[in-house]
Amino acid sequence: MISAELEQRGRPVVVLRRSEGANAGAWALLQEALQRGVEGGSRDVIEARVDVFFAELEAVADARRRFRQTISFGDELTRQLRALAEDRKKRESVLRGVPPADQGDLAAELSAAGFRRALKPFQLENLARLMSLPHGADFSVPGAGKTTVALAGFTLGRARGDVEQLLVIGPIAAFQAWKEDSAACLSPEPVLDVHTGPRTVLRDDLDILLTNYNRVAADYDRIRTYITRRPTQVVLDEAHRIKKGEAGVHGRAVLDLAYAARRRDVLTGTPAPQGANDLVAPVRFLYPGQDRKILPPGAYSEAGGRDPHVVAETSGAIGRYFVRTPKSRLELPPTEFDVVAEPMGRIQQAIYEALEGRYRGEFALGVRDRRSFGRLGRITMYLLEAATNPSLLVAGSDEHDQAEFVHPPLELRGDEALADLLRQYVQYESPWKYRRLRQIVEEAAARDEKVLVWSTFVRNLKLLGGALKDFQPAIVHGGVRPADGAPAGALTRDAEFDRFRNDPDCRVLLANPAACGEGVSLHHWCHHAVDLDRTFNAGHYLQSQDRIHRLGLRDDAVTRFTLLLSRDSIDETVDGRLREKIVVLSRLMNDPGLVTAALPEPDTDTDDSVPTVLDDDATALLQALRRRS
């Protein structure tokens, strides 16, 4: 006989054991089917990742049929299989067109359950669809009220006896919104706490627990215990952060928690900034073991996931499993774009061209070699710095830069022409972007307006803090901690946001998208954002825009975005790549208005018969280097 049970071995695994007399062919079939998920075992034991086991249930059934082999399931595994089967039935009922609940009835049920905020029609529509699903995805644009809708779903689930507590996993910047919305929406006000790490006491009377992806991975066992002690709804806020799935530490921890949750929901306004492949991990969280029955094969290829046919097929496949409120439904006033493209100064241009010359040969490596080439990301950072402020090259990344942007100072011997150019630059020239930015801020201050400035690099923010000190800028980056967990007297993000919002002398907020591109609302105080520089990360760019262009804007508000691009530089390559990625996302979500809202020009000259996105960002950069050689 062969037995199988779901066990906790640090993380959940399915343990298969064969006893004497078990069929060798059946055992070999199971070993082959589960090979990609095997984490341990012996000749007679297989320890396989739970997600792989559930994905290979057809192979388990095949082993039973072909070899007439008895395979017994333990109590916990049986319970999980029954829950997944029930999920599948509910999911398939949606495919058969079972209508969602009446919106009027839902509104009345919410009010009776103590939900105090009146939902807008499109929010009620989304709630009705989400509640018809066993687990739901809300891909509405930022600012459409996804937090409110999720809290409404929790209220209904608790009133119906389906769940008793809520766990929200999201970026720290979003915690304040969850706190404020929970207090405004739920009556009585819920018992809410923030999980700051292994030392946090997880009280028995909690209704809502807020944590982030890092903390879940670092304190997995206790978070899982919290989920299993009572029926729990788990919400992933900004769920695109787990797109690496099992390949990422955060994604693996979150996916493992899926089996302990009673209900699962994912929220993100940018679900697939790089293409269809980004949807794999969120779908696996929602429906463990069923993702390959939902997504087309092409979605599992990072490069192929951007092919127009794959995009169209994926969009059709997932259309009934998510809700999305597009920008057009919010009836927001339109955006205005000002693309400022200027040539670099004479010395800056020489520095940039010297860098390109140094690295052109390294970018000319074959695609496979180039992808594994460890210095590629570093070179990209150098080119971005040179196009914005070459003095950053000699300093390297700041200790508070996001991990993906960390890089050492540029390697210089000291006697080459590039070193001489850098010395001249500091003495004789200043970045044109800095000068233009100061002009923008001065003009805004004269009109009694505030400006939000985005830069990838923390050193830029710190330098600009000094250059614009007469405008008393607020600064938010990874080194400025949130109020939760910050030592007494420390500068916090909350205090800086409050100063920007309410202090009339604070005219500028200097921020990087990695730290405050999500979960922050600034649209009541600021209507002009300037991008000093941008990376290839489309999610960061889209999220940053929505800090000031979101639900609640006055009808007469004019939201302006200014993009500063150095001519004949990587800035232009980044601009083109972001355009291509946003077009792909708009097609995946069937939201053509996204392009108009997010880009300076609409998508007017796109041919569906050719790929809309190049193989990868490095390929696009290589082509640009060749054109400028």
Automatic annotation (TrEMBL):
UniProt key word Protease: no
SUPFAM superfamilies: P-loop containing nucleoside triphosphate hydrolases (SSF52540)
UniProtKB keywords: ATP-binding, Helicase, Hydrolase, Nucleotide-binding
InterPro entries: Helicase_ATP-bd (IPR014001), Helicase_C-like (IPR001650), P-loop_NTPase (IPR027417), SNF2-like_sf (IPR038718), SNF2/RAD54-like_C (IPR049730), SNF2_N (IPR000330)
Molecular function via GO: ATP binding; helicase activity; hydrolase activity
Pfam families in the record: Helicase_C (PF00271), SNF2-rel_dom (PF00176)
Domain Helicase ATP-binding residues, every copy: 127-289
Keyword Glycosyltransferase listed: no
Official protein name in the record: DEAD/DEAH box helicase
